[in-house]
Design brief:
- By secondary structure, the chain is an alpha/beta fold.
- It has two domains: about 5-40; about 55-320, SGNH hydrolase (Rossmann fold), CATH 3.40.50.
- It has twelve helices and nine strands.
- The radius of gyration is 29 Å and the shape is globular.
- Residues about 30-50 have low confidence and may be disordered.
């Protein structure tokens, strides 16, 4: 082999070594990017519900001065106002009954099917008598202790649950109520209720206005009652063709459901002294709704159980009283 041939072979070997080194480096880089599979941490086996999710809960202590002069009878009495979460099932498997069982309380279920937080009309319109079942009017009837009008309208409803709610409403002694639970599902979102009225925060035809004015009435008349507003949970919207849309993102013109939940929290905060329970993230959400819902917006027994567990834990373990300085 002459010197020239030997020099060619040296170059060939050198180039081959470069190719081998580059190949090994590329393979190692590929393995590093891909990672090594750990059978004990298979991503398909991860339950998203195991991750901690921060809720928007706002559980406030009771101002002790508001209890002065109020006689405590030693028994826990809870009043439930709202719509379908309470009214869908009024028997032993209902949400109110489950709360009673878990808190050892007397619970009044005065919720009306498919009613809403907001009113359809700012002033009573005889062409739409169902406004009587909405939150503002129900609180007004309690304030006046007058139930003739709502009883008359309930008797015209083919659904007996309306009259059952009125009959129970008539038996409530507000002087004995310790806790008020307010829970409405996504009905206001479904029917296109404006989420708020920036020009008039007390507009009862808006979601936030109807809630705020009602809460203010309750606090003014019965300041000793602890109020918990329980947010709606995740839900879907069913259009007129039967198609389902994700309430997390589907906007009917006034915002999606998370927007309404945020506005509800805003109204509760503006009212002051009212607690907020975030069911949208903390109880039934997009990750677990199939386990807890009977359809796009109503709950099954497991769903009512989960809602009852959530509020019962707060009532049993997180209610407190403080003395506000200067009072």
């Amino acid at each position: 082999m002459n010197f020239k041939d030997k020099n060619v072979w040296i170059h060939i070997v050198f180039i081959a070594l470069i190719v081998i080194i580059a190949g090994v480096s590329a393979f190692r880089l590929y393995r590093w990017n891909k990672g090594t599979r750990n059978p004990e941490a298979d991503i398909e086996q991860v339950d998203p519900s195991e991750f901690d999710t921060e809720t928007m809960d706002m559980i406030l202590p009771m101002d002790g001065s508001l209890l002065e002069g109020h006689e405590d009878d030693g028994e826990l009495t809870i009043l439930c106002l709202g719509n379908n979460p309470f009214s869908d099932e009024r028997g032993e498997n209902g949400l109110a009954a489950k709360i009673a069982e878990k808190t050892n309380a007397t619970v009044y279920n005065c919720a009306f099917p498919d009613s809403s937080v907001a009113c359809k009309y700012a002033e009573y319109n005889p062409s739409y008598t169902r406004d009587h079942f909405n939150l503002y009017y129900v609180v007004t009837f309690l304030e006046q202790n007058q139930f003739t009008a709502i009883e008359s309208i309930a008797k015209d409803e083919p659904d007996s649950r309306y009259l059952e709610a009125v009959e129970e409403l008539k038996t409530v002694d507000m002087s004995k109520v310790d806790v008020l639970l307010v829970m409405y599902d996504s009905t206001d979102y479904n029917i296109g209720t404006p989420s708020d009225n920036p020009d008039n925060p007390n507009d009862v035809t808006a979601f936030t206005g109807g809630l705020k004015v009602s809460l203010d009435k309750i606090k003014a008349n019965w300041p000793y009652i602890r109020i918990f507003v329980m947010s709606p949970t995740y839900a879907q919207y069913k259009d007129e063709d039967g198609n389902l849309h994700n309430g997390n993102t589907y906007d009917l013109g006034n915002g999606d459901i998370p927007h309404y939940v945020q506005k509800e929290l805003d109204a509760v905060s503006d009212s002051g002294g009212v607690s907020f329970v975030d069911n949208y993230i903390g109880t039934i959400n997009e990750d677990n709704y199939e386990e807890y819902m009977a359809d796009e917006m109503h709950y099954n027994d497991a769903g009512r159980e989960a809602l009852a567990d959530r509020i019962a834990d707060i009532i049993n373990n997180k209610m407190s009283t403080v003395n506000v300085a200067g009072k």
